[in-house]
Amino acid sequence: MMRFLTMSPARKTIPTSSRRLLAGGSLFLFTLSPLPAALSAAHAAQPASTPAPGSAAPHAHASAAHRRAAARPAARRAVPAATRAARNEDVSIVATRGVSHDTEQVVTRAAIERMVGGTNPLKSLAQLPGVSFSSSDALGLDTWGASIYLRGYFMDQLGVTLDGVPLNDQSYGSVNGLNILTAVIPDDLGRESVSQGAGAVNLPSNSNLGGTMQFFTDDPADHIGGKVSQGFGSYAMYRTYARFDSGRLNASGTKFFASYARDYEGKYQGGGSDFMQQADGKLVQPIGHDSSISAFFNWSDSAVWGYSDKSLEILNKLGWRVESFYPNYAAAYATAAGTYLPPGWDQITGQDPKTVAFYDAGQHTVDYLGGLNLDFALTDRLRWRTTFYGHSDTSYLTYGDPNTPSATGAPLSEEVWQPRQQRMGFDTALQYRLGNHTIETGVWYENNIQTSGQYWYNEPLLGQGAPVETVGPYDVYGPAFQQSYNFAWTTNTVQYHLMDTWRPLHNLTVHAGFKTLAVTTSGGSDYNNPDVTGVDSLPNGSLSTVGAFLPHVSANWRFLPGHELYFDLAENMRSYVVGASGAGGYSASPWSVQDQPTFKQLQHTLRPERDWVYLVGYRYTSKRIIASLDGYHSDISHKLISASVGTLNNPVASVIDTHSATMNGVDAGLTLVPVRGLSIFNTVSYNHATYGQNVLAGQQYYPLAGKKMVGYPEFMYKTSAIYTYGPAQVHFDANYYSKREFSYLNDTHIPGYWLANAGARYRFGSYGAMKNITVDFNVYNLFNAKYIAMMGENGFPMSGDYQSLERGAVREYFGTVTAQF
Q1: Start and end of every TonB-dependent receptor plug domain (predicted)?
Q2: Which residues neighbour 649 within 8 Å (Cβ) at sequence distance 6 or greater?
């Protein structure tokens, strides 16, 4: 077994502390989220009023209810102890209405700004205990090589929203959602909120099993101005960001912002680059003193070259620098023709030597997201919030295929998967205050039209033209000369929720509610080429996921000053994954199985994944110490896995019901503030997740009972030290991830690894029209460790090795200059 010392993105973890106040007759959850940083008051994130999932985003203008709360006597507005303890720290005090859980953790704008501009927002969540994030590139722009887990739940098992819009499945090539990376420019995010417990019943999602992630954009500023940022870095990294805020345009408070970002990042190994353009816009129109309408629009165009997939054997025998041929078309051409083979490629067991690495690989994706958020105070007690949204995604997922000759006579071709989706929906809710109760009910509906096809495009004869590249265009030498299949589905989702937030005592808050979820997907293959697929018919048919009563109960008890106890329990359910064969191997989609007879059998035997999540926790907050301890347990029914066999060029997909699985874990965090300006933070996470039964897949019996789940470390340790002195700040952080199981039978694994990062910032103040001029310098992978980042991108093997690993980025340096005007 290969051994290597590596590291994972070390980020700051954020324990939380909750306080509830009855302000203006409304119930608010005050979540204190101290990060391991001591920032000056000028750097601290401002308090933000946060809507319930699916509601309008918070507004900069003060509502009448907020002004009435502010006018109350001081005794009614006493500052919570947790707030006083961290007054000078990097904290966020967030008033969240309608939240139905007590385990929310918040990443503030100040924490996001410490990362390199343009970094995948999912990476900033790696600061939290129980979160495992990895990526093949330093900024996380290559979604093929990026993954995130929350306490053992993968990114296609989480509930995710942006300003109330459901983003659903975050995995690569998904036709049931939108990755947050391409949904918004990270610089426009005001904060990020994570619940690693059971989530919230009012959050719209058809993919949530084990936690939620909510992202919120900043509102436009009240005063005209803007921000510009220019970044530079290793491997020709170059990033530009610009934003304009209109300020209040009239007496009613109309305001908007528009922003643009351009990212370029060269590959640290091999040829190619990651390129992305994004544009955001948001308009807010207050109505009266306590209502508003906001409109939003987001566009992204990303063209990303990926890194070659590796196996343990490839790493052991050929080393870490095996990479795709690009831009050496002649070498790729000769390898595909069988006249040349790089040294050692014929030593890889049971694999076509030509497939150790391809000519190129990557993806080109264009996304549009837009909608309206309505937030109306109908009466002093009744509030109505609604989100209307639409999303369009067009993607091309490609690699150079050395086993399929082009019609031009070239011995290789460009293989392209073309997934598409068009989602439209709304999420609406009414909230009514009655005494010590806040009652909410609402409905979410979404229609998603999805397609996925597989095509081969011509490459030229050697010396007779420039080769087709992974980011396109693909029809340079004519239309696709071969098609394998095409799938088309329609998915309709309806979710209803009802919940009550009750405060029987001044220091006790209880939430109780349920949701009903119904998801139906109809369709499947509408074109099949038997000469390519090798079967007479591909999967086509309907599957429904129905959960009539999915309950959720939680409570928070502040039994002494600075001391809190809380618990959270819920039942969740996830709809079936929609996907065609070959478009991402880690998701277990019933429509990705080999043929129609297999799918027909699954229609009668398959059951949707469900789970019960239990959590209990304790928090302590004082002037110099903030501590938290969570224990959790999950019982998972009908957990589905996609076991990968065969090669990348000839995979055999299978969907296996493991019947049952369990998870037990503990997260602990400790923040120390020994002196003003210095914050030291440590977290420890332990997760023991196992399958409950042996399984029969096809004609093969697998002793899966008691085996650990793949892909997630059993133990994590995160540490961070941040020191601020006047306008200067420095930070150092490191993460340790223990070994991760690679095969379902646990006979192969990826050893544990460390990753360390460091950074510094200096604020120069204002010069002329430019304000808050800031210079940042960051080092990623400070000690240049070798480590495996993403694993299972082509699926996990039942046993042994498989070409389904991505190397993590080498040491890289980044600098950024930012100014406001």
Answers
A1: 104-211
A2: 352, 355, 401, 403
Cα separation, 442 vs 440, whole angstroms: 7
What is the H or E stretch that residue 232 is in?
strand 225-233
Backbone angles phi and psi of 20, in degrees to 5: -120, 135
**Contact by Cβ (8 Å): 435, 450:** no
Name the token pair of 448.
């998603």
CA–CA separation, 457 vs 359, rounded Å?
14
In tens, the pLDDT along 502-518 reads 999 999 999 999 999 99
How many other CB atoms sit within 10 Å of the CB of residue 499? 26
Instruction: Answer yes or no: are the C-beta atoms of 598 and 539 closer than 8 Å.
Output: yes
Measuring CA to CA, which residue among 820, 810, 816, 821 is closest to residue 266? 810
* CA distances in angstroms from 679 to 211, 300, 723, listed in the order given: 28, 37, 7
Helix (H) or strand (E) holding 602: helix 596-605
pTM: 0.88
Instruction: Report phi then psi at 354, rounded to 5.
Output: -65, -15
Supply the mean pLDDT for the chain.
Answer: 87
Please state which of the four CATH numbers 2.40.170.20, 3.40.50.300, 1.20.58.100, 3.10.310.70 is assigned to the domain occupying 17-239+263-366+382-406+427-820: 2.40.170.20
By mean pLDDT, which of 5-9, 283-287, 501-505, 666-670 is the weakest?
5-9
Average pLDDT on 178-189 reads 96
- Count Cβ neighbours within 10 Å for each residue of 98-116 and write b for 16 or more, e otherwise: bbbbbbbbbbbbbbbbbbb
Cβ-Cβ contacts under 8 Å for 480 (sequence gap 6 or more):
416, 455, 456, 457, 474
Query: What is the CB neighbour count within 10 angstroms for residue 228?
Result: 15
Residue 75: count of CB within 10 angstroms of its CB:
6
Under 8 Å between Cβ of 299 and 279: yes
Measured between its terminal Cα atoms, the distance across the chain in Å is: 56
Q: Can you give the C-alpha Rg of the chain in angstroms?
A: 26
Give the residue among 221, 229, 280 at the shortest CA–CA distance from 118. 229
Mean pLDDT, residues 734-759 taken together: 96
CA distance 64 to 379: 12
CA distance 123 to 146: 9
**Residue 680 C-alpha from the chain's centroid:** 27
Confidence of residue 583 (pLDDT cuts 50, 70, 90): low
Do β-strands 753-767 and 770-780 pair in parallel, antiparallel, or remain unpaired?
A: antiparallel
Tell me the DSSP string of 687-742.
Answer: EEEEE-S-EEETTEEE--TTPBPSSS-SEEEEEEEEEEETTEEEEEEEEEE--EE-
Could you tell me the residue ranges of all domains in the chain?
17-239+263-366+382-406+427-820
